[in-house]
Amino acid sequence: MKDYKLDTLCVQAGYTPKTGESRIPPIVQSTTYFYGDTKAMADCFDLKSADYFYSRLANPTVAAFEGKVTALEGGVAAIGCASGMSATTLAVLTVAGAGDNIVCSHEVYGGTYNLLGVTLPKLGIECRFFEPDDTAEEIEQLIDDKTKAVFVETVANPAISVIDFDKVAGVCQKHNVLLFVDNTLATPALCRPVEYGANVIIHSSSKYLDGHAAALGGIIVDCGNFDFKGNPRYASFNEPDESYHGLVYADLPSAVFATKCRAQLIRDMGAIMAPQNAFLSYIGCDTLALRMERHSSNAAKVAEYLSKHPKIEWVRHPSLPDNKYHALAEKYLPNGQGGMMSFGIKGDATLCAKFMESLKLITQETHVADVRSCVLHPASTTHRQLSKDELEKAGVPENLIRLSVGIENPDDIIADVAQALEKV
Ligand code: PLP
Fold first, then answer.
1. In this prediction, what percent of the chain has a pLDDT beyond 90?
2. Closest residue (by CA) to atom 15 of ligand 1?
């Protein structure tokens, strides 16, 4: 399977039926599994057997989705989680505890920013933020012997900046620190961070992987390319885990990160993906490569249209030649930059509201990255408590409209935007 191209893996990876079995993964809606002998079950608890024994630890439908995303991202193992946020939380807690720190790009999803900047500090895990445009030297200064990971997004939500992998991965390799990459908005169809030095990849699968706004979920992919053995930064991988029969994770032949994450964090905190959501996400991924092509070409057309419109002040999408991240996008996302974009209407919040309400096809939603085009006006929704000045400082000016471009016919999307702009 490994040698197939990505669009083939989208359709075929993760589940291979035996004769007479269902062609697509069945939804194994069971918390528990039958055992006739004690030894077979004891082997599960000792990690000697990979058989299923309780759905908080693993489930066959979830495993099919995990297998598919592992293949797509070029990793060695994956863990399906209840949401993108639980995936990020569990990935961080696999490596960090009180007294440790995470170095994170300032331009990440708001929920991640809150988790790392507000919630995890309450547990004693510090977060040190850097700007994506900072130099390697500036990022390096934040790293010390308690740094357990550097965290970035390939394409940041909602800033729509593109990370400079060579710069960030170079810093991680120099200091032997894990690089965590949230690849939600790019997806492996447009960028495979493992090829640029990522060690752990995280997704909110609620977005493009599912693609249909049908299933909440998250996934952590272990790229299997980090040597934990003897690395003093990762003592918890090199010491016996008393809660797991003295297992030393760094001694495992493969999937060291994923095994620790599942054996400790999934076991203790739950938050595994539900079988029904895994099924929907699995079949959603069948069309990922096709959808991302269309999302990207549609967004590029809409961005070009808006960039020439007299009522538009600015447009942010990496496909535009004058976009600050165009060169990085050409390097890391050469086959398309995804469907997320933002633009500013010449006018104030009232005018933006008028524009939004005039749209007929494109709907107002907080969600992004599914097949249907949708918009959000942060100044009157997610950021409505902020003053005009505070909005500017947060990089969300009053006139900013976030547009998640779907896979409808591009002419219809542009026509809808055009008729709404005529009304303002
Ligand atoms: N990461 C990114 C880039 C996101 O956009 C989101 C949600 O929008 C998340 C993580 C969190 O995912 P979820 O909503 O599935 O918890």
1. 88
2. 84
